[in-house]
Amino acid sequence: MSKVIGFKCFDCARQFRGDEIDYVCAVCGGNLDVLYDYDYVGAQLTKARLAADRNLSMWRYRPLLPIADASPVPPLAVGWTPVYDCPRLAVQFAIKQLLIKDDGRNPTASFKDRPSALAVIKATEARAPVITTASSGNAGSALAGVCASVRMRSVIFVPSQAPAAKVAQLVIYGATVVLVEGTYDEAYDLCLGAAARFGWYQRSTGFNPYTREGKKTAALEICEQLNWQVPDKVIVSVGDGNIISGLWKGFCDFYHIGFIDRLPQLIGVQAAKAAAIVDAANRDGVVRPGAAQTIADSINVGQPRDGRAALRAIQDSGGCGVKVTDSEILAGLVQLARTTGVFAEPAAAASFAGLVKLCEAGAIASHERVLLMITGNGLKDIDAARRAVDEPLRVRPDLDEFTEVFKRSRAED
User: Is residue 20 included in any domain, yes or no?
Assistant: First the structure.
C-alpha cells in the first residue's frame, strides 16, 4: 500500500517499513504508530469526494486506512454514528455548546466495532484462520459480531466477572469464549501467549497497531459531521488508552491533509481507582501500572496497554485528565439518560461525569464547544444501571391499589 510508509515506535522512536513488522517494536517491544504519505492520501481523499459519497460508514475514509484497495470490507454498517446537540445541558453547564457522539449506535452497541472491523480485514489479508483478542467485553463482542458477518473463527478471552450481557453477545455470535478467572490484565497476557502458541491473528488493543487506525475514524466523522469546525474540547473515558490515542490520530490526520485548521483539546476521564493514565497526565508523565477496581468494567484497567500513546494525546493536545468516583459515574449515567435520551454503560457515562466535574471546577469557559464521546450502550450492563435508580412500582392489577401506590410515590418525590 503506497499510502502506508511504515511504523514508528511510541517508546524508542525507531521506524520500520511496513513489511518488517507485524505488531510491536522489534527492538523495545513498544506500541507502533502507522505512518502515512499524506500527499498521497490528500490526492485520493478530498472534501468534494466525501460530500458525494453516499457510503455513510467508516469505510468512506478508506484512503486514510491501512487496508489494500482490493480488500473487501465486512457487511455490517460500522460508523457514522449520530452527533446530538444538547442545548439544555449547554445552558445548565454555562458553556456555548454541548455535543454528544453516540457510538452505542454501532452494530454490536459499542465503539469497539471500529477497530474490530479493521482488524478482521487485516486478518483476512494475512490469511489467518483464527483471530483472537482479550477484552473486558465490548472489544470481544465487537470482534465476534464482525467475525460472524464474514464467517471467520474467533477466540475471545474475557475476565469471568464480565457483565452477563457482554458474555451473551460473545456466545450468540459463535465465538469460542474463554472466561479467565482473573483480571482483564491477566486475560490479556493469556491471550498474547495463546496467539503466539497457536499462530492466531492478534487483535488485542495496543499490541495490534491497527486498532488505533480503526478508532480514529470516530474523529474523522466528528470533523465532517460538524462541517469541519472541530470542538474546543473532546471528553472521552479511558481504559487501555487506545480510544483517546485513536481520536487524536484522526484529528491529526485531517489536520495534516488540511481538512481542519486547528486541533481540539482531549480530556481523558478515568475511574478514581483505575487511573494510571490520568495520574501520569496530571503528575510526572510516567504511567505506572497498579490495581484497578471500578464498576465501569470497560475501563477497569490496571496496566494500560496503550498508555504512552494516550498520555501523548492528552499532552500534545493541551488537555488534561479527570478522575471520577463510581458514584459519580452512576449519577452521570442517570442524568445523561434523563436529559438527552442517550443510555450509556458506566464506562461511557464516565465522560459525562468528567464533564460535570470540570464544569464545577470552572475548567470549561463559557465560549467553548464541548463534545462527549459515548463509547457503549447502557444495555451492555443492566445490573449497573439498575443500581443507579429506584425500583419500579409494583402493584396487583387493581386500580385502587395503583392509585394509592402512585400517589405515595409522588409524595415521596
Answer: no
Rounded (5°) CA angle 193-198-202 = 60
pLDDT tens track for 255-276: 999 999 999 999 999 999 999 9
Name the amino acid, one letter, at 94.
A
CB-side neighbour CA atoms (13 Å) of 205: 38
CA distance 333 to 352: 8
Cα three-residue angle 201-102-91, rounded to 5 degrees: 150
CA–CA distance, 25 with 173 (Å, rounded to integer): 33
Whole-angstrom distance, CA of residue 306 vs CA of residue 31: 7
Three-state DSSP class for residue 128: coil
The residue type of 193 is: G
Q: State how far the Cα of 399 lies from the Cα of 411, in Å rounded to an integer.
A: 18
| Helix (H) or strand (E) run with residue 349 in it | helix 346-360
Q: What angle do CA 327, 141, 333 make, to 5 degrees?
A: 20
In angstroms, the CA 74 to CA 311 distance is 32
Q: What is the CATH number of the domain that holds 243?
A: 3.40.50.1100
How many domains does the chain contain in total?
1
Beta strands, E only, 141-221: 153-159, 176-180, 201-202
Query: Could you tell me if residue 267 is inside a domain?
Result: yes
| CA nearest to 166, candidates 338, 381, 372, 359 | 381
The runs of H, that is alpha helices, within 293-342 are: 307-316, 326-340
Please give the residue range of the domain that contains residue 329: 83-109+212-387
Task: Return the exposure string of 278-294: e unless at least 16 CB atoms fall within 10 Å of the residue's CB, then b.
Answer: bbbbeeeeebeeeebeb
Q: 369-411 pLDDT, tens per residue?
A: 999 999 999 999 888 888 889 899 999 999 999 999 999 988 8
